[in-house]
Amino acid sequence: MDTIRADFPILHQKVYDKPYVYLDNGATTQKPKVVIEAVKNFYEQTNSNIHRGVHLLSEKSTEQYEQARSMVAEFIHANSTNEIIFTKGTTDSINLVAFSFGEKYIVANDEIIVSEMEHHSNIVPWQMLCERKQAKLKVLPFDDNGELCIEKLDELITKRTKLIAVTHVSNSLGTVNPIAEIVKIAHAKGVKVLVDGAQAIQHTAIDVQALDCDFYVFSGHKIYAETGIGVLYGKEKLLNEMPPYQGGGDMIKEVTFEKTTYSDLPLKFEAGTNNYVAAISLGEAINYVQAIGIETIAAHENKLVQYASHKLGTIDGLRIYGTATNKVSVISFLVDNIHHYDMGMMLDKMGIAVRTGSHCTQPVMAHFDITGTVRASFAFYNTKEEIDRLYDGIIRIKKIFA
Ligand code: PLP
Asked: What residues are annotated to the active site?
């Protein structure tokens, strides 16, 4: 653990003169030295725009960018690099599909299903599509443990259902959803499935072919890479059928004022100068994760979640939201009638960073009739001692409020 923590410079500082405890990994993860140095080295030695120049550094930049694409493809077991589109992040990937898939396949009175536990970025783009096309958004509910009511899926799907958009792991409850089962039910009725992997990619091994999902999306910054890069995986046949999302450089074959022809995959969906440096940092981050092993990471994080659930669960008046059998990385809670913002601000003064509020999942808060929670979310560099610090902090705050 000491070696791993040594890889993350930001963890070794004091805030308010206290050793820093970072438990907001669901929002973004910290970056290991190898990623930070790769970015610095790239700017110092290689930087040139990709897919444009014939000069040496441009070719090297392009090579590293495409290498990062291959690494992503391998990491999630895609069939081909044509299925890996670099975007700005999860939100951008979902908007791309909502626009492009929507343009091609959605007509008035069609239906799209999202789950009740989606992040706003997997709700709003579909709502906007439904408004544009006069289609209908339907909702798959979850129960009070935070588990999806899969048994309701059959009756929700009708002949008009075109797509189900569902999160792999809930960012506010930690629930791991049974994606393979959902895909099976959907595909039996000819319905496509988009999986939001923003909170799964850093915690579990992903095999898009085994899941058989049609789209899988995630953000680089949640898996130890820079901000500004994301991935859209899509089955090649579908991506080929879908129209471009944005027009511009890189996504064209030939432009005349009469007619423009588009690039083949994956560039068809990558208009303009993409954040190639962040893509390269993603390749570096994947390398780093693979060197440690995603199974090793998952095992450690699972121990942390179990330890935290048990330890925080002993605090009188503490209520945990999200008690699914299969959950990872997240403990959402409230204590007595202490407001989540008060709890978050007081923990902050003790050097402990947690997230407070609705976590961009207002419908989840509405389900429990609350305005927000305090969320501690873990990465593999977190320790039991940090959870003990959180526990001690909560006990102190309880006493102050009492
Ligand atoms: N989906 C889930 C489940 C998330 O947790 C997040 C971010 O927290 C997003 C989507 C949006 O990710 P981004 O802001 O990187 O686009």
From this structure: 360
